[in-house]
Amino acid sequence: MSEHGPSLKTYVAVFVALLLLTMATYTAAYMDFGSHSLNVLVALGIAVMKATLVILFFMHVKYNERLVSVFVVAGFAWLALLIVGTLHDYWTRGWLG
Amino acid sequence: MSEHAAAAHPRLQHHFDSLEQQKEASVLGMWTFLVTEIMFFGGLFLVYTVYRVMYPDSFAVASRELNIFLGLINTIVLIGSSFTMAMGVHSAALGRKRGTALWLIVTALLGLVFLGVKVGEYQEKFEHHLVPGTHFAPDHIPVEHHRGAEAYFSLYFAMTGLHATHMIIGIPMLLWLAAMAYRGRFSRAYSTPVEMFGLYWHFVDIIWIFLFPLLYLIDPSRHH
Amino acid sequence: MSSTATAPSAAPAVPPREHYLNVNFGVKSWLLTTDHKRIALLYLATITVMFALGGAFAVAIRLELLTPPGDFVQSETYNKLFTMHGVIMVFFFLIPSVPAVLGNFLLPLMLGAKDLAFPRLNLASWYIFVVGAAFTVWAILTGGLDTGWTFYAPYSTVASNSNVVAAGLGIFITGFSSILTGVNFIVTTHKMRAPGLTWFRLPLFVWAHYATSIIMILGTPVIAVTVLMVAVERIAHLGFFDPRLGGDPILFQHLFWFYSHPAVYIMILPSMGVISELVACFSRKRVFGYSFVAMSSLAIAIIGFFVWGHHMFVSGQSTYAGMVFSFLSYLVAIPSAIKVFNWTATLYKGSVAWDTPMLYAFGFIGLFTIGGLTGLFLAALGLDVHVHDTYFVVAHFHYIMVGGVLMGYLGGLHFWWPKITGRMYNEGLAKLAALIIFVGFNLTFFPQFILGYLGMPRRYHMYPEEFQVLNVMSSAGASILGIGYLIPLLYLTWSMRYGRIAPANPWGARGLEWQVPSPPTTYNFDQVPHVQEEAYDYATARKEPAHV
């Protein structure tokens, strides 16, 4: 077996971290960070952290060859392209003519 | 050549040179498929983003119709199922028959709990006339927010519906894998199907990790 | 050492050599095959049928457009004709053609592998394709689709009375065929190259298909989810694009074109890969600037995702976004231009042969250049306002799709026909057909540039009197083109039974696929090849007869 996965301890630690981050999301939603955008940023930031933990450890990407990481990053980058590329139309509607 | 030297592992397919190459190919192939899933759900995330930017207040108002407690329970259930899935993969890679089957069955059960809660939530939406279309008649939402609220609920049903569909497809596969594990089909050398399904299951969990804050936690305490 | 050599020419009666076509017979051995070569032929049969169906709709369109009034069919019917022509040609011919037929057949051979990474997924992709095609044909037979192949909302979601959901379902299903093919090609290229076959020794055909697969993976799911949203909006009245429900029709267009623009690169890149192989072989020269051509395939795949808004200049999209998309569209033309320059430079001081595949390659280079340049016209904001939704656009994309993709497909089919079938086709007929196709094509579509520029809109079945001459020319060209397509259908089919037996390497080409017998055995290689040469090593060619 070429692949060494996470140890049992690591799996449990990640699980606990995910639960804690879930509680953090829930709590943060009720807190006032000033502007609404900051709340969104915090919520998404925590979600990204959770997703990263799942990807790296539960999905073994940390232990896979680097090519797998390239594919993962490319997938999310393309989603970002879809969203930003479309939004930039809506954001600039009033700009010229 | 080594192909004829020793009997090839029974699970080694003829066009691969080694189990390692075969496994790496499977992992890469599964991730390539998951990238398509990112873009598939991604289309809905795009629509969500556009309409939330267009109707920020209506989205906040509409999201308060959701039961945050149930959403939180479901999030914990799904994260738990990801943990049990990871345990199942770990166990399969150690060649354990009973242990693997058990972990996979627990994962399926947690998935069923999630779906059960979802059914309850959907029922509530139907009763409160929150389903978009001709019968959309939200009681607690002011009229000026109806357009945005209808967009919100369209997205709510589409995104959680698509997510639930992925789980409905996954649960029978878990049971099938559990049966195979119990029959000793996996070993230290070969547990690829369990691992590949694990990737799928974790991905479905990740989708929910984003859906929870985006749908349930927009502005629960009306700060803005 | 159990290599199956090609049958010696003057030996006593030898049992026929076993290869992938005669290793077993019967319907089951074909329908349950996992041999990438048989699957390629299954695809060949299916897409030929779909091409004929799409072509039938084209015939109906050109018949209607012979005369100015809309007297052949009613407008509602005409809407269905051009829609079905587009849907079938785009999704069921152009997108699968080169990858599913030539890509499937050749990729493992070119890589020195025994099959693709996932042979059963490969077979599944064909079945999925057939099911998707069946759904769409059923949708046609039970009322048709009249939204245009672009099925814009809100017409497709709210107002159209045609089979939007059924046709959409057909397209949705077929998308998975594309995705599975892409998965297979990507993984196979990464993981199953023969020893010594580094990335920069790969044939450019492989680079092209790798780049194509990237687009298939990143783009197809977006059209899939968009079709799903259209269906859901139509059936359940969830409001995504309907303004009455709070939706935005322009959002549909963003989602649609995010896939559908890169889709045109799914169509052209594989054909470009074919052209690289043809130009190298028939100039007896390494492709000039090999690494630039390889990298340009990737550049087209990636930059092609940045330009979709150039279909939306007059839709209500912001002017600023229009400028950004216009600029990026000029950028994406550069790698295509690099390819054309490099193919041309390959010809320089090459030893050029005029075999049929090379005729198609020349046709491609010229016609793709015209199509590509007119794309730049359309990418200019000011000019696009004038020619958007006119026959100028129709001519532009037919120059690329027919003058480009289809010529590449036919060129490749002829080039690898001996490898695929073990037979040679009739060269005289083949050259004649290529000529007829070239003439017919230009007569059909060049007048359309003029018509568009003069203002004739697309998707209309009636037009002002003064446009009739050009329309008649176009329809006349179409009939010539149709005859041109029938001829290869006949002689290629005939050759499968009666053609001259082909040697392993009738063209004296380089590449691993030419080192196995024609046709190859089921598992391609008896021994794993070890590659020590660069691609297109024509300069140091061993003494081998160029043609048999």
CATH class of chain B: Mainly Alpha
Number of helices of chain B: 7
Percentage of residues in strands of chain A: under 5%
What is the domain tally of chain B?
Answer: 1
Rounded to the nearest angstrom, the distance between the terminal CA atoms of chain A is: 63 Å
The major sheet of chain B is characterized as: none
Helical amount among residues of chain A, as a percent range?
Answer: over 70%
Using CB atoms under 8 Å apart, which protein chain pair has the greatest interface? A-B, 49 and 54 residues
What's the mean pLDDT score of chain B? 93
The low-confidence runs of chain A, each spanning 5 or more residues with pLDDT under 50, are: none
Features:
heterotrimer, B: 224 residues, C: 548 residues, mainly alpha, Cytochrome C Oxidase, Chain A, 16 helices, globular
Fold and architecture overview:
The complex is a heterotrimer of chains A (97), B (224) and C (548). With 97 residues, chain A is an all-alpha fold. Chain A folds into two domains: 1-64; 65-97. Chain A has helices at residues 8-29, 36-58, 66-91. Chain A starts with 7 loop residues before the first helix and ends in a 6-residue tail after the last helix. Chain B has 224 residues and is mainly alpha-helical. In chain B, helix 3 (56-63) packs across helix 6 (146-182), helix 4 packs antiparallel against helix 5 (97-127) and helix 6 runs antiparallel to helix 7 (192-216). Chain B has seven helices and no strands. Chain B has a single domain (20-216), classed as Four Helix Bundle (Hemerythrin (Met), subunit A) (Up-down Bundle), CATH 1.20.120.80. The radius of gyration of chain C is 23 Å and the shape is globular. Chain C has one domain (36-515): Cytochrome C Oxidase, Chain A (Up-down Bundle), CATH 1.20.210. In chain C, helix 8 packs parallel to helix 10 and helix 14 (391-421) packs antiparallel against helix 15.
